[in-house]
Amino acid sequence: xxxxxxELTVRPLVSGRTEQMVTFFVADQIFGLxxxxxxxxxxxxxxxxxxxxxxxxxxxxxxRGHIVTAIDVRARLGAPAAPADASHMCVVVERSGEQFxxxxxxxxxxxxxxxxxIEPTPSFLPTAWAQVSGGIYRMQERLLLLLDVEQLLSY
Amino acid sequence: MDELxxxxxxxxxxxxxxxxxELVRFEQSPNDSEILGNIFRMMHTIKGTCGFLGLPRLEKVxxxxxxxxxxxxxxxxxxxxxxxxxxxxxxxQIRSIVDNLAxxxxxxxxxxxxxxxxxRTLADGxxxxxxxxxxxxxxxxxxxxxxxxxxxxxxLAEVALAVAPVQAPKPKQQQQLRAVQTSAADAPIVVRxxxxxxxxxxxxxxxxxxxxxxxxxxxxxxEVLENLMTLVSEMVLTRNQLLQLTRLSEDSVFKEPIQRLxxxxxxxxxxxxxxxxxxxxxxxxxxxxxxxxxxxELGKKIxxxxxxxxxxxxxxxxxxxxxxxxxxxxxSADHGLETPDExxxxxxxxxxxxxxxxxxxxxxxxxxxxxDGRGLNTERIRAKIVERGMxxxxxxxxxxxxxxxxxxxxxxxxxxxxxxxVSGRGVGxxxxxxxxxxxxxxxxxxxxxxxxxxxxxKIPLTLAIIxxxxxxCGGERFALPQIAVNEVVRISExxxxxxxxxxxxxxxRLRDSLLPLINLRQILKLDGESTGWSPGxxxxxGYVVICRNGSQVLGIIVDSIADAEEIVVKPLSAILGTMxxxxxxxxxxxxxxxxxxxxxxxxSDIAQEPxxxxxxxxPAEDIRKSGESALLFHTQAEGMKAVPLSRVHRxxxxxxxxxxxxxxxxxxxxxxxxxxxxxxxxxEGIRREGRQTVLVFGxxxxxxxxxxxxxxxxxxxxxxxxxxxxxxGVRGSGIVAGRAVDIIxxxxxxxxxxxxxxxxxxxxxx
Lengths: 155, 766
Hints:
By secondary structure, chain A is mainly beta. Chain A is 14% helix and 46% strand. Chain A has a single domain (18-153), classed as CATH 2.40.50.180. Chain A has helices at 2-7, 73-76, 127-132, 149-153; strands at 18-26, 29-34, 38-43, 57-63, 66-72, 89-95, 98-104, 106-114, 118-119, 133-138, 143-147. Chain A has a six-stranded mixed sheet. A five-stranded mixed sheet of chain A has the order 3-6-7-5-4. Chain A is globular and about 45 Å long. Residues 1-14 of chain A have low confidence and may be disordered. In chain B, strands 12-16-17-15-14-13 form a six-stranded mixed sheet. In chain B, strands 29-21-22-32-31-30 form a six-stranded mixed sheet, with no helix packed on it. The model of chain B is unreliable at 127-153, 165-214, 417-427, 608-625 and 757-766 (pLDDT under 50). Chains A and B meet through strand 4 and strand 5 of A and helix 9, strand 19 and strand 20 of B.
């Protein structure tokens, strides 16, 4: 813990505004995503694989008549693939008018985060993680990594 | 005010297209006062409206043009081709200002004095000074000052003009007017309720834009229609989903209302589709002008003849075929048709004709572009094919006319002796073909030397909804556009059709032809439960979908056929990047997303594959010992023979009746050289008649042909000698691909002819 504290040099100078975060789990890590950015949370959807697409592309799903590309967040973060029989859930986000479906292991509670308590991304994180991180929020038992959707979807 | 300008731009764009056409007609029949009256009226309207809207630049240009037209009308000036060209340039200038007006909202600040000056000079004669002060008069009356008309006469002319449009226009003119109504891509398109009843409307519309009361047509923005189409497409998909659900439950209370909904949806879909339909004449409207300009430039006499211009097709398709059509007409004018002298010498009328026709045929539109020009010289194309190395002279000679003609649509193929700035016949024909194939169409070419050539294009009516065949492969489903599917062949151990392998590539013998096959599972790296087809596998059970891609016929190996369904093509998400093999995706009736296969991409793979050596293509064979590719073949004597593939220069098939004897050696004329023929079986190995396969060793200068019976396979293996040879020309015996073979020594045969006269040029030998 001390090591982490040393790494965190700057604390953001933001006034105490609270924000609702949807939490979800990928490869045993808890992530947070601003509730404003989340369009939908769905149970596992029938996925259509896209042959020859990048590893991050989990496939395409039919979301109420719209074809939405599903992103395998595990693959995007360079984490090992989930076991074949593991369940998954979908978090639907929007980026520049197009919807995307993030395939995650599980979706947790919606928590309220005070922006004062958000700390910048520590520099020792693996690049794949640091790229998509919007900061760290310290929960009671664990660290919540805030996800930057823009970064996650740009590669 | 803004709305007025928008209306003005839309209407003027239409009028300008009509003016283009009318002027070309006028040039052909300069004495037709009705055409001239029409032209004058349209120009006058443009000028008048400009004055009204306060567009001085446009007004000046239009005024100058109108002055010249006025002289034509009064008979004081004889229309010559140069003056018509000048008027056309004036129209181009107006068009560019109007374009600027549409995009930037202002007239822009270009300089029109050059064109105005030229028009003035033409109207007034070189001596007359220009009438600058009189020009910007806002009332827009024709300035007839030359003849000293009093103002009252000017007004009379106005009155006469106002009365003129009441005359019923000729049906043909009307047709053209309607055709160009919607030509500009971004301009609002016109929805007609009852075009038949609005007889006099198009004309009066052009002349009096403000008088639109009681009109049967309204202007609707294209975007609104596109949006409507998207919504209807969604609705069709949902309807399909509902139908599928009710099909599953036997006695649902929803059954009847859903049936009704289904019918209404179908009607709605047809109705909305109809709003997108436009007469093909829209795509043709620019052509008379293009042909006229070309004819002047090339010094030819060309008549353009159009049939079926009211044949309707989808707006989107129309836009996509516009450029290919223009290109083909240019091609015909430039290279298809001869000069008047050549035509007269060939016993034809000095005026050449390009004939465009369009008609419906079974859900498709057929467009024909025919000319009565020189046609294609197949001999010259054959020579070109050989020159370009696209085939050997023997192959070229064996091709029939239609096969030869297909070559003009291959990339970089042109037989034009001189390349003009307009086109080179063949240059760009491959682009035309790929553009047409992109929208699911096909193009065919027929030609009779000396009589003319005809292009036939077949395109679907609409792109929005297509019928598709749903196939299954490697646990995934894919949609194939039904239009491309010829037939489906069942493959099993018991069926008459089996997938065979040639150079490790799958092929199917269907009736008389050998079709290249696409191993979809391998190309898309699919897995799935069953194993799929692989070279040497005889137990594969599945289907081959025979498809047509342009002139190419190919088969796709799939596991099963799932369904046939109407689908709405949606583009792939940008995040997927540039995906090969898929042209889009869609949602099926059962709610699942499905990818649509792109036949063009799949077919292009086949075109490349035979070029690559088989060893390089199979990554699995990368872990290999020091080996090489060997050609296995049979001769008359028993036993398999092998030769290193690298030593085989070519494999030819000769007509053995053409074999001649020089200095006791049997030779065949090959690429202007004499190719000595040898055989492993002595004299008997070389046939006296029929065709025989010959392996050519060595290069052109010193080559020798080895006559053989059949080629068995190409394998990759170590050509190690296990048993030395006792016979001439055989290096030894070994085991290649599990078979005992004699390994042939090409050097032996080359050495035989090393000092031979046969390598001399043909003339010397003869």
